Amino acid sequence: MNEQARIPRATAKRLPIYYRYLTFLEDAGTNRISSAELAEATKFDAATIRRDFSYFGALGKRGYGYDVKALLSFFAKVLDQSSLINVALIGVGHLGHALLNFNFHQSSNMRIAAAFDINEHRGKILSGVPIYDMSELEEQIKAQRINIAILTVPQEEAQEITDRLVSAGIKGIMNFTPLRVSVPDGVRVQNVDLTNELQTLVYFIQNYASITTGK
Ligand code: ATP
C-alpha cells in the first residue's frame, strides 16, 4: 500500500512498542486509551504519539482517546500490507543484546520487532524492542506476521526452539548457535558460527601468514 510506504522510519520503529502496550490493554479489557496515558506507558511524548497515529489515519477523539481494538486492527493491516519485515530474536543473552542494539539500523524495512527469553528481561523494553516471555512465542509470531527468527539461545535449547518456530510458521532462521538445527523442507537456515569464523581466520593466519608475507 502506497500510503504505508510513506510512514517515516522513526514511526515504524515505534510500532512494536505501541503494539506491545495495545495488546496489554486489550488483554486487560481496556477499550480506549488517551495519547497522554500511552505517553506515560511508552515514554514517547504525547505529541509524537498523536503524529504517529495520524500517519495510520487513526485520529483520536477529543475526550475519548483512541479505540484500542481499532488501533490493533490497524497495526495488523500495516504489517500485512507494508514492506516492513518483522524479525524475532530468541535469547536475549550477550549476543542477543548486541543484536538488539544493532537492530539492522542501515535497513529501513527490516527490524527486530519482538525478542523472547525465559528469564529476567521479560516485560522489559531493550533498545526499543519489547521482550516477551517464551510462552508468548507462537502467539506473537502469528500476530506480528513474523517469518524470520534470529536464534541466540544456548545450543542445548536450539532444536526444541527451532521446532516451535517452525510450527509457528517461521520460514527463515539465522542460527547463531553452533548446533546444526534440523528443519523441514521449505525452511531456510543461515548458520552464523562466530567462533568457527574466528577459528578459520586464526588457522589461516597461523598456517599461511608466513607464505603470504614471505617471512
Ligand atoms: P550469548 O553470549 O551466547 O548470547 P550468554 O552467555 O549471555 O549468551 P546463554 O546461556 O548463551 O547466555 O543464553 C542466551 C540467552 O538465552 C539468555 O538470556 C538465556 O536466558 C536465554 N535462554 C536460555 N534458554 C532459553 C530458552 N529455552 N528459551 C529462550 N531463551 C532461553
Overview of the molecule:
Residues 17-56 bind DNA. Homodimer. NAD(+) binds at residues 91-96. One of its GO terms (molecular function) is DNA binding. This is Redox-sensing transcriptional repressor Rex. The chain is of the alpha/beta class and 215 residues long. The protein has two domains: 2-78, Winged helix-like DNA-binding domain superfamily/Winged helix DNA-binding domain (Arc Repressor Mutant, subunit A); 85-195, NAD(P)-binding Rossmann-like Domain (Rossmann fold). 48% of the residues lie in helices and 17% in strands. The chain has nine helices and nine strands. It has helices spanning 2-5, 9-27, 35-42, 46-55, 68-81, 94-102, 137-143, 155-167, 194-213, and strands at residues 32-33, 66-67, 85-90, 110-117, 125-126, 129-133, 148-151, 172-175, 188-191. The strands form two sheets. Strands 5-6-4-3-7-8-9 form a seven-stranded mixed beta sheet. Strand 5 (125-126) and strand 6 (129-133) form a beta hairpin. Helix 2 packs across helix 5 (68-81) and helix 3 (35-42) packs across helix 4 (46-55). The protein binds adenosine-5'-triphosphate. Adenosine-5'-triphosphate (ATP) binds at residues 90-96, 116-119, 134, 152-154, 157, 161. The site of adenosine-5'-triphosphate has 17 residues, from helix 6, strand 4 and helix 8.
Give me some keywords for this one:
215 residues, alpha/beta, Arc Repressor Mutant, subunit A, Rossmann fold, 2 domains, 7-stranded mixed sheet, two-stranded antiparallel sheet, 9 strands, elongated
